[in-house]
Amino acid sequence: IKAKVVIEDEKENGIRAALNYGHTFCHVIENLTNYSTYLHGEAVAIGICMANRLAKKLGFINVYELEDVKTLLIKYDLPTEYQVKNKDDFYEHFFLDKKSQNSKIKFILLDGIGNFIIKDDIPKEVVLDIL
Predict the structure, then answer these.
(1) Residue 119 belongs to domain spanning
(2) What is the pLDDT of residues 35-89, one digit of tens each?
(3) Fewer Cβ atoms within 10 Å of its own Cβ: the N or the C terminal residue of the chain?
(4) Which is nearest to 83 in space by CA: 40, 49, 41?
């Protein structure tokens, strides 16, 4: 399935971006933990929860949708929380990701269950607030 999506959307301007849901936060977590604390899928699960908190704060999903996704991840014994020690340091690590373009952080967020939106204009203060 992924290969088909990659072929259809080489530049990640559409559906392929959805495959990166949770990865913006995931890559920071992996970097900060030296890739030693979580398996990639576990870091993605945490990243999904962080992305969902951001989506809720921006009004794209409601608390029920936020909790439904978290409950599903917990059902499969995946972690859903990461203790951020330094919010500013966490934020600066976004810019180490190859997906950050022109000093903009690309967030893939739910826009209701089953839909996504790409946002690259979220103020730093809003992101820091959900960490």
Answers:
(1) 2-130
(2) 999 999 999 999 999 999 999 999 999 999 999 999 999 999 999 999 999 999 9
(3) N
(4) 49
